[in-house]
Amino acid sequence: MSHFFTYAILTATIASGIQYTAPFLLAALGETLGQRSGVLNLGVDGIMLLGAFSTYYVAYRTGDLGLALVAGLATGAVLGLLTAFMSVTLNAEQGISGIGVYILALGLTDLLFVKLVGTPTPIKPLMGLDIGLLDRIPAVGRMFFHQNALIYVAFLLVPVLGFVLYRTTYGTKVLACGENPAAADSLGINVHRIRYSAVIAGSTMAGLAGATLLINYGIFQENLTQSAGFIAVALVYFGAWKPGGVMAGSLLYGIVTAVIFQWKSLGIIPVSDADLAATAPAVITVLALLSVGRRFRQPSALAKPYVRGA
Amino acid sequence: MPIRTPRLRWLGLLGAAVVLTTAACGSSAKTGAPPTTNPAAPAATGGSTSSTAGHPFKVAIVAPSAVNDLAFTESMVSAVQSLKQKYDLQIAISDNQYVVSDAANLIRQYASEGYNLVIAHGSQYGSTVEQLAPQFPKVSFAWGTAGSTFNQPNIFAYQAASNEGGYVQGYMAGLMSKSKTIGVIGPINVGDAQLYVDGFKQGVLAADKTANVKVTFTGSFSDVGLMATAAKAYIANGADVLTGSSQSVVGAIGVAKAAKAAWFGTQWDQSSLAPTAVVSCQVYNWVPVLDQIFTAIKGGKLGGATYTIGLGNGGEKIQFNPGYPLSPSVKAAGEKEITAIVDGTLTPAQ
Amino acid sequence: MRRLLASESNASIVAPAVNWRRIALTWFALPLSAVGALLVGALLIAAFGSNPISGYHALINGAFGGGYALSSTAVKAVPLLLVGVGICISFRANVLNIGGEGQIAMGGLAATATALAVPHLPAVLLVPLVLLAGVGGGFVWGAVPGFFKAYFNVNEILSTIMLNLVAVQLMNYLLAGPMIDTTTPFAVTGKIPQTRLLSKNAWLPIIVHGTQLHLGVVIAVAVALLAYVLLWQTGFGFRLRAVGLSREAATYAGMPVKRTTTLALALSGAFCGLAGAILVFGGISHRMVTDGSLTGFTGSAGFNGIVVALFGGLNPLWTIVSAFLFGGLLVGGTALQGATGVPTDLVTTIEGLVVIFVVSIDFLRRRARVRAEEPPERPGTRTRTRPGLLRLMRARA
After folding, report:
1. Do residue A256 and residue A216 come from a single domain?
2. Mean of the pLDDT values across residues A248-276?
3. How far is CA B68 from CA A66, A114, B64, B309, in A?
4. Domain spans of chain B?
5. Interchain proximity C72–B194, CB inside 8 Å
6. Does any domain span residue A16?
7. Helix H segments across chain C?
8. Of A62, B252, C129, C231, which has the maximum CB count within 10 A?
9. B37-51, C160-174, C182-196, C233-247: which has the minimum mean pLDDT?
10. Which tens digits make up the pLDDT trace of A131-184?
11. Domain total for chain C?
12. How far apart are CA B323 and CA C76, in angstroms?
């Protein structure tokens, strides 16, 4: 155990946890925006899968990572449009339509991978980006400032989303639509338009989350996300619909995962208990939620379509 | 609700009718005999009936991952396909059968369709083969990687002594590592992954008693992210040589490449995934095993034997990546260990 | 579809005039969704350069062509039906159970452990016992998130997903450790994460010789009938649906909302657990084995069951038909792959499309209903609390 508390290993563990966290965080922040407007998008995992695949496919075909990222974002946006159309215009049952998107993406990505790519071929990874001299800062330098650019984007989006939600007119409208759409409507807010925009923006972030995942690994595989999108939805509840809370939840999940691996690799957790130890992130997240579950209230109109009087 | 009861009855009848129809249809299949109706040809990507003389030898492969997985499944499929001409084979392949019960149905179906040999390529299919073999005594089954034929006359078992290649690569890793820290990542501590990991660890320690070799299992064969995270944990601990087993290593290979660490692969040649990081790979070649199985079947023996590929019979090969700047002395030491295993002077423990 | 139609008319206040558009929509909504999904699937097959007609022909033949195919389909439908029935119950209580995968695995493990513990009991006792153990395992794995939701306000989507992650690792741990086969000698190869051959007394008997059709098929159908009775003929079923319609109203009416919520998820888990037990003892291999993933054991029935229940209109009886159809789709997918070279992932894609179309087409139906039945409201705005398919289905009093 003493090995673990050395400076190099602690920082490296946290750095690895931060990188593992980024896709969860991106997807969860996007989901937060959507849920704050009153739309539950349970298809995040599917959007991440399709976002990851389109990123991979464009990078595989063109070798241009920038273009690939655009493809990932665009895929997210298009699926956001579909989700918004189902949830907002068609008033579809949101949990179920999301599961539909997930199952569709699960099948479609593998189908396309097998038919269009075939042999697993890696793409060029995105290298660590050192921001100026920041990564030379003692103690925290490499932990926080030697990550690839997408990871900075993920964490930068936390204050950005906080600002948008709490400090802008748009954010106020989003919150109003999530809490009391009828009142928002009576104030002249176009509830459908706000929800559309929030869901599309949120899904674009899910597409980016998929792209981040893909770029971290440099290759696509069937079911690449391994339920990461569902965990992201869970983290929104964990974070009580606040960007800061969502970040805390994502970091808890990511860093616990990284710490478990560090302990395994140091032999602190014996090989025979490896499977049991792997349950820790899930167990800890549920237990943590037990203690905070009663304190927070979800947006009042969450998952409730808004229908203007006939 | 006056209409509820009749409706319930009607629907109940419908439900019952479905069952009865099914049962009736089911019983129309000849009792005891394999079903007479052909439940449609299973995936036959490699299938062709280009037999010129007599009946072709029909081989079916059921495998858990994709035919091009650069690992377990690809090693078997390409071996069988390479023998197509030699034994006049008609080959059917069902890949991606990771759902064990679906795979079981396919294995049964191939057996009932008169395939001469059904290869159940996955240790998780063993029990299925054990149960089906007595029902199809004229069909030969092969399953692996495993070391037991369940004492049945029509089951062949095949296995890979992956500890041999693991030992050689571990030995080289022990010589190469400057930080004296070496990371090993497995999926679950079973099967040939377990063997490979044990052999590798033994090899490292044989080369350098002081080396720090650590083993982690992720708990999943397919989670690329967990493999990558495990690899990062090793890099963080100062590891400069990594190895791993299963189809989810692609993420870990990427980590090794980015951290400029060395990577040793197993099951198939993975150097295309990271030409600058992969030192060598233990490549499975099932041809020697298949040769023995085909010869036995032609001689009227449908099973009851266990075959092993290893460095000695050419079933395992250490494939060096020509693009990796491996020091000649390490390579020579590795080749010396290979020779020692081949001529029997060295036997890695199991 | 007559059932769906009838269920809606219960909600009407005014005797509706004959509205053919609405009748067409309510009768054909689900078949239309299926046709739409299959059409998109056909486009995909064509886009990959194969013939959709021969592909679908192979699919139908592989699923329903002849006794063996039909029996395979029926066997494949069993876990789908049981999970689907569980989903009917939880969704009607407005609880989204997406932890079916984990609940199936825990049911399978509990049943397996029972058979390992008392292998010598006679079949008359052991078969019911292992099935009950499966029910119990799933019940517990469903009750935990149900309890957390009811008493600690923990969202069930979160907890059921997390419990799936826990279940897979528990399964891997148990099958590679405490429950591993110690009876078969393995020469060189490392250990295989599987149990020993389970007691023959626990095997589900084959009811039609020469096929795979086992007792589980009968059990699943019987269970679906029971669930129907439970939902619509008992006080508990009434409370469950009332809680699903409006938690507030149910509380106001003095119903035990928390207990009902917990039980809804626990029962849903129990049905999944039974599916797990049947997968172990009705399968070919008669051992529980893991490939390291939940899907390897469940065949994704925990998710596919949601599609099945939805396509069955969240009604256990229609879910029987729905499960049989989707079982056929899954079984026939292999034949389709053989005929066209399009991987079985196409079937998953079609399933996803079915869900999307079902929830989308429901909009048209509701709009037709609104036009036909609802008197014009005063100008103003309102929020509909539980609109959609579920509401209509729950509205049967």
Report:
1. no
2. 85
3. 28, 9, 12, 21
4. 57-161+286-309, 162-283+316-342
5. no
6. no
7. 2-9, 20-47, 52-64, 67-92, 100-117, 123-152, 156-176, 215-233, 235-245, 247-252, 257-281, 294-298, 301-311, 316-340, 345-373, 389-394
8. B252
9. B37-51
10. 444 555 544 444 444 457 788 889 999 999 999 999 999 999 999 999 999 999
11. 1
12. 49
> If pLDDT is split at 50, 70 and 90, which confidence band does C17 have?
low
* DSSP reduced 3-state for B277: coil
Residue B107, token pair as written in the block = 């294995």
Greatest alpha-carbon span in chain C: 81
Q: Are residues A99 and A212 in the same domain?
A: yes
Cβ B207 vs Cβ B182: under 8 Å = no
pLDDT given at position A308: 74
Query: What 3-state DSSP class applies to B282?
Result: strand
Closest CA to B63 of B95, B88, B91: B95
In eight-state DSSP terms, residue C200 is G
* Inside any domain, residue A166: yes
pLDDT in tens, B158-169: 988 899 999 999
Mutate to test the interface with C, among A93, A241, A246, A297 (most CBs of C within 10 A): A93
Quote the tokens at residue A143.
Answer: 């932990």
3-state secondary structure of C386: coil
DSSP per residue, A105-147: HHHHHHHHIIIII-S----PPPPPEE-TTGGGSTTTHHHHHEE
Domain count along chain A: 2
ipTM of the complex: 0.89
Residues A167 and A251 in one domain: no
- Residues 6-65 of chain C whose Cβ lies under 8 A from any Cβ of chain B: 6, 58, 61-62, 65
- Cβ of C307 under 8 Å from any chain A Cβ? yes
Per the structure, the complete domain to which residue A89 belongs is given by 26-128+146-222
- Helix orientation angle between A7-36 and A149-167, rounded to the nearest 10 degrees: 40
Q: Is the pLDDT of residue A280 over 90?
A: no
Residues of the domain holding C299: 77-318
Cα-flanking dihedrals φ and ψ of residue B341, to 5°? -70, -40
Q: Are residues A279 and A155 in the same domain?
A: no
Nearest to A17 by CA among A138, A122, A147: A147
Pairing of strands A306-307, B57-62: unpaired
- Helix %, strand %, coil % for chain B, to 5? 45, 20, 35
Please give the structure tokens belonging to residue C136. Answer: 């119990």
Best of B25, B313, B347 to mutate (most C CBs within 10 Å, chain C):
B25
Please give, rounded to a whole number of angstroms, the shortest distance from the CA of A65 to a CA of chain C: 27
Domain boundary among A170, A197, A222: A222
Which pLDDT score, from 0 to 100, does residue B24 have?
Answer: 38
Class of domain B57-161+286-309: alpha beta
Question: Does residue A14 lie within any of the structural domains?
Answer: no
- Which residue among C74, C189, C284 sits closest to B159, beta carbon to beta carbon? C189
Do A176 and A279 reside in the same domain of the chain?
A: no
Neighbours of A134 (CB within 10 A): 13
Nearest to A229 by CA among C86, C309, B230, C98: C98
| SS3 state of residue A81 | helix
Chains that touch B (3 or more CB pairs under 8 A): A, C
Shortest Cα distance from C151 to chain B (angstroms)? 32
Query: Which of A164-178, B254-268, B324-338, C356-370 shows the lowest mean pLDDT across its residues?
Result: C356-370
Last residue of a domain, one of A197, A222, A247: A222
- Do the domains B162-283+316-342 and B57-161+286-309 match in fold? yes
| Residue A189 backbone class (left: φ over 0; alpha: ψ -120 to 50; beta: rest) | beta
The pLDDT value recorded for residue B10 is: 42
Cα(A96)–Cα(C98) distance, integer angstroms: 10
Could you tell me if residue A183 is inside a domain?
A: yes
Q: Residue B39 above 60 pLDDT?
A: no
Contact A221 B219 (CB under 8 A): no
Superfamily of domain B162-283+316-342: Response regulator (3.40.50.2300)
